[in-house]
Design goal:
single chain, 112 residues, alpha+beta, Wheat Germ Agglutinin (Isolectin 2), domain 1, 2 domains, 2 strands, 32% helix, elongated, Lsr2-like_dimerization, DNA binding, Lsr2-like protein
């Protein structure tokens, strides 16, 4: 069975029949996308026209800030123990710095 998407005018709630206008409205640091019929889009533009005429043209785009998503922290490992194990297995590892993921995986497999 197929699905149909019905678009509704955000202002008057009427069904939009192909004549859709998406308008991005930004005030301060907040932005909204408003989906309107051509008639309502024209009315919105007419309503804000006096403000736009007296405004300075903005340069560039406004960046909206979104909270950064943090990657979960890697589990804490005793890298010195892993290095000692790797050396005892004949695997070459450096005394300092990062331990290769393949070495960590081998260590974990051996101690699972």
């Amino acid at each position: 069975m197929g699905r149909a998407t019905i678009l509704i005018d955000d202002f008057d709630g009427k069904t939009l029949n192909g004549n859709i206008k998406r308008i991005r409205v930004t005030v301060g640091n907040e932005s909204w996308d408003v989906y309107l019929s051509a008639k309502n889009a024209q009315a919105l533009r007419k309503a804000i026209d006096p403000f736009v005429k007296s405004a300075d043209k903005a340069s560039g785009t406004i960046k909206t800030t979104r909270p950064r998503t943090r990657r979960p922290a890697a589990p804490k490992r005793d890298l010195e123990t892993i290095r000692q194990w790797a050396r005892s297995e004949g695997i070459e590892v450096k005394d300092r710095g990062r331990v290769a993921q393949s070495v960590i995986e081998q260590y974990e497999a051996a101690h699972a």
